[in-house]
Amino acid sequence: MLARDWIGLRVEVMESPNPCEVGLKGVVVDETMNTLRIETERGVKVVAKMHRVFAVEIDGRRYRVDGRLIAFRPEERIMKGMMLVNRIKG
What we know:
Radius of gyration: 13 Å
CATH architecture: Roll
GO molecular function: ribonuclease P activity; RNA binding
GO cellular component, one term: ribonuclease P complex
CATH class: Mainly Beta
Family: Belongs to the eukaryotic/archaeal RNase P protein component 1 family.
Subunit structure: Consists of a catalytic RNA component and at least 4-5 protein subunits.
Largest sheet: 6 strands, antiparallel
Distance between the termini: 20 Å
Shape: globular
Strand content: 35-45%
Function: Part of ribonuclease P, a protein complex that generates mature tRNA molecules by cleaving their 5'-ends.
Number of helices: 1
Low-confidence stretches: none
Helix content: 10-25%
C-alpha cells in the first residue's frame, strides 16, 4: 500500500497533533510530498503527512499507516516501494 498511488483512496486521520484533524475522513483527491488533500463532506481539507497516523481502505480492508512512511513525493514513494518489492522477490 505504500508503493501505490493514494489518489482515490478512502482515508481517515487516526492520530494528529491537531485534535481538530482526528476523525477527518474522505477520499484523497491530491497528494504532495508533505500533504494529502482529502475531499470530505465539508469540502477539501489539506492534512500534513508527518506526525499523523492514517487509516486507509484498500480492497475493503483497513490499514493503519504512519504518515512518516508516505512523506515522499508520490512518484518517489511508488518507485522506492517497487524497488523494495523486487528485492524481496529476489
